[in-house]
Amino acid sequence: MAGLLLLTACGSAEPAEATATVMFGGDACGYAGASTFDTGTELTIKVINGSEQSFGFSVWKVPDGTTFDDIQSQGMLTVGGEGENMRGILRPGSVDRELMVVLDESGTWGMDCFQLDGLTAPSDGYAAVVVEVR
Known about the structure:
Layout: E1 17-24, E2 29-32, E3 36-37, E4 41-49, E5 55-61, H1 68-74, H2 76-80, E6 86-93, E7 97-103, E8 107-117, E9 121-133
Parallel strand pairs: 1-4, 3-9
Antiparallel strand pairs: 1-2, 4-7, 5-6, 5-8, 8-9
């Protein structure tokens, strides 16, 4: 009696990985990286301080169709809404750092650099980029 052996793949594919760089220059926040990602991508962002100032960095799921100018003129807190839309943050500091964020939802995402007035209130925000996740 012959036997039959069936082999099937188990589990799921590894999530996509990507890297990007953000540089804060004191009065602007620049971005070097892709503009489109697949849902589930693990994005590692190297955040570089090109100034003498302390700053923070955040990544938000923003309303679809949000533009760079929307974030720059209105601020990320206004555009992004409350904290439930924030997917990653680096508190203000002056050293180079890395942040890993999972882009877990399709649509428009925004990134920004910010400085604080006092301990918690953002005083200045600088849009870095708006990307699309599909």
